[in-house]
Design a protein that fits this description.
alpha+beta, Lipocalin, eight-stranded antiparallel β-barrel
Amino acid sequence: MKWLLMVAMAVGFVGFVSVARADDKKAADPTGTWKWSIEINGQARDQSVKLALDKDGKTLTGAMPGRQGNETKIDDGKFNKDTGEVTFSVTRERNGNKITTMYKGKLKDDTIKFTSETEVNGEKQKREFEAKRAKDEKKDK
């Protein structure tokens, strides 16, 4: 009888640990569409930025729409599930010049707190913002 009780407790514990690990993996996944608002010179813009991310192990891929709606793929995308750190860069061309913006963020639930850094004309511009995970359109239907 004691043996049966111990086996039942062990199976229950393994099931509990498996569910907890599944929740951790689900919480630590940057896959999806992320949105945030743009603020330039203290003025909020009406438009919002979208970022689509996919994860394959520690590697992130994705794209961001530009000013004319052209998608720009992200480069060097990485995700550290242990720390929740998201990093990538986006390079765009403007007036014949390539401009690279580096993004570094911390994922928590459905929010990524980002810092972006861009060098323009020899000056570094740094911005902090929060991106929110867009709701899954399939779930809303």
